[in-house]
Task: structure prediction
Amino acid sequence: MRVSVMGALILINYVMQTSVLPHVAVFGVTPDTALVFIVCYGVLRGDVEGAIFGFSAGFLQDLFSGGPLGMFALYGLLIGYVSGKPFRDFFKDNYFLPFFIVLIAILFQQFMIYISSFLFLGHFNLALYARTIILPTAIYTVSLSIPLYSLLHFINGRVERYESGRRNLFEKK
Result:
């Protein structure tokens, strides 16, 4: 059940990110909802599942972006793993912790994209890139983190209840 839900979330997010979100761009930037999903899934499910989710979402983005294959998959894997690692036993109803983790993750990812995509092309103006792309993308993405975390928290609760009910069917009485 969890694998099918994870796959559906990745596909739905990718379709939304490529078809709907470009029409609601602000200052020419769109939010990176895949990153929000990766962080939230890592926080809710742990480091290993966060890394798998991040790799899968990033690999799908790599396949259809036309850029270097594996770049977003690597970023997603790292962000999913790191966001799930220290938060195994924290209170999952804390909505502000994912907010701050998304902020750090989006700044990390955008800076790595700058290094891997623009710096090697000879574009050395980090201040311009930060002002026109990194900061607007970070603000737009972080503004969606709490609503998307609450949605994923709800979905995760439903999946966990379903799975715990299925496990009870096979226990000896």
